[in-house]
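User: Can you recover a sequence for this backbone? Please restate the input before giving your answer.

Assistant: Of course. Working from this structure:
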C-alpha cells in the first residue's frame, strides 16, 4: 500500500499537472469505490468546478475544487491516478474518470478495487467534512499526527508511546497515532534506530525514542525526495520512484545488513511481513525464539519472482530485475 512518501509524490505531481484545470464531466464506472455521495450526485457536483490545488492528509490525496468542495482519494493497495489524453485507451480497471476542459482525463485506476474516493465539503476549520454538508463531522477526525510537520518532535513521540505496551511496530502502523507510516518505512525506521519491532513501546529508553524520531523523519524525508518506493503497483502520475533502490531491510530477506553484514530475516508481526537484522536490532527478552521460528518461513511470492517467472506481473518482474541488480552489486 502506498505510504506517506508515495502519496505525497502523487499530490505534488497532480499539482503540477492539473492545477487550474476545469472539470467538464465525470464517469463513475464502479460505484462501490465511492464513499460518498452516489454516482449521479458525484458527477453533477464536480461538473464545472476548477481544480485549485492539492494536498495530503495521512494517506489521503485531497484535491481542492472551487466552491468549497474537496475530492479525497485513498489509493489502498493498487490504486493509481493517471493524467492522460481523453482519447487514450481506457482499460477495465479504470474505476472513475474526470474529463478536463483541456482535452485530458484524470483517471482513477485500481486493479483490486480496494481504493476509495469521496466528494465532500470543506468545513470552516479547513478539514474535510464527512459529506457535502459543510456542517457534517470531519471525515478524518480519528487520524493522528503528521510525522513531517514541525509539530512532530521527539517529545511528542515520547508522549504518544508513554505507557503503551503495544509492540513498537504495531504502534507505528496505527494511523490514529502517527499517520502515513506503513510496512516499508516502519521496518526502515526501526532498523535505522536499532530497535526490534517487537519491543514494547513503553520500554523504549529516551535515547531510543530520540533515535526513532530522527529515523522516522529521516527516512520519510528521503523517500519523498526520491519520489517514494515503486514496489508492486505503485506509480505516480509523472513516473516511478527510486527509494526502493535505497531500502536497507524491506524485501531484502537473506541479503547482508548494510551495517553489520548479518543476513536480513523476515518474520510476521501483527500479520505483517517484517524485515529485521537480528544482530543490530536485539529482540526483547523472551521473544527471540518465537521470532527465529517464524523467520524460518519461506519468502513471500514477490520475493521468489525472477524476471522469467511464469504468471508474474510486469511490476513484479521489474522488482525482480532491481533485486537481481542489487545482489549482483553486493557480490
Amino acid at each position: 500500500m502506498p505510504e506517506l512518501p508515495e502519496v505525497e509524490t502523487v499530490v505534488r505531481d497532480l499539482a503540477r499537472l492539473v492545477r487550474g484545470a476545469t472539470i467538464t464531466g465525470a464517469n463513475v464506472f464502479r460505484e462501490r469505490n465511492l464513499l460518498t455521495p452516489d454516482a449521479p450526485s458525484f458527477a453533477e457536483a464536480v461538473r464545472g468546478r476548477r481544480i485549485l490545488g492539492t494536498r495530503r492528509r495521512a494517506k489521503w490525496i485531497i484535491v481542492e475544487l472551487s466552491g468549497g468542495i474537496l475530492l479525497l482519494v485513498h489509493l489502498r493497495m493498487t490504486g493509481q491516478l493517471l493524467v492522460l489524453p481523453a482519447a487514450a485507451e481506457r482499460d477495465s480497471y479504470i474505476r472513475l474518470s474526470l474529463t478536463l476542459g483541456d482535452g485530458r482525463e484524470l483517471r482513477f485506476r485500481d486493479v483490486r478495487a480496494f481504493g476509495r474516493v469521496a466528494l465532500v465539503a470543506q468545513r470552516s476549520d479547513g478539514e474535510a467534512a464527512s459529506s457535502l454538508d459543510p456542517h457534517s463531522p470531519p471525515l478524518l477526525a480519528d487520524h493522528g499526527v503528521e510525522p513531517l510537520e514541525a509539530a512532530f518532535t521527539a517529545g511528542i513521540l515520547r508522549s504518544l508511546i508513554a505507557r503503551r505496551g503495544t509492540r513498537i511496530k504495531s504502534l507505528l502502523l496505527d494511523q490514529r497515532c502517527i499517520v502515513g507510516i506503513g510496512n516499508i518505512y516502519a521496518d526502515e525506521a526501526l532498523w535505522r534506530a536499532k530497535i526490534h519491532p517487537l519491543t514494547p513501546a513503553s520500554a523504549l529508553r529516551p535515547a531510543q525514542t530520540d533515535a526513532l524520531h530522527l529515523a522516522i523523519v529521516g527516512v520519510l524525508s528521503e523517500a519523498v525526495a526520491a519520489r517514494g518506493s515503486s514496489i508492486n503497483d505503485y506509480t505516480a502520475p509523472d513516473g516511478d520512484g527510486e527509494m526502493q533502490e535505497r531500502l536497507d531491510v524491506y524485501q531484502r530477506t537473506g541479503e547482508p545488513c548494510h551495517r553489520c553484514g548479518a543476513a536480513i530475516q523476515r518474520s510476521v508481526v501483527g500479520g505483517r511481513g517484517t524485515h529485521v537484522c537480528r544482530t543490530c536490532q536485539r529482540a526483547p527478552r523472551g521473544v527471540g525464539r518465537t521470532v527465529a521460528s517464524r523467520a524460518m518461513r519461506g519468502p513471500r511470492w514477490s520475493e521468489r519472482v525472477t524476471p522469467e517467472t511464469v504468471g508474474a506481473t510486469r511490476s513484479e518482474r521489474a522488482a525482480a530485475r532491481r533485486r537481481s541488480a542489487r545482489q549482483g552489486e553486493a557480490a
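That completes the design. The longest strand covers residues 51-57.
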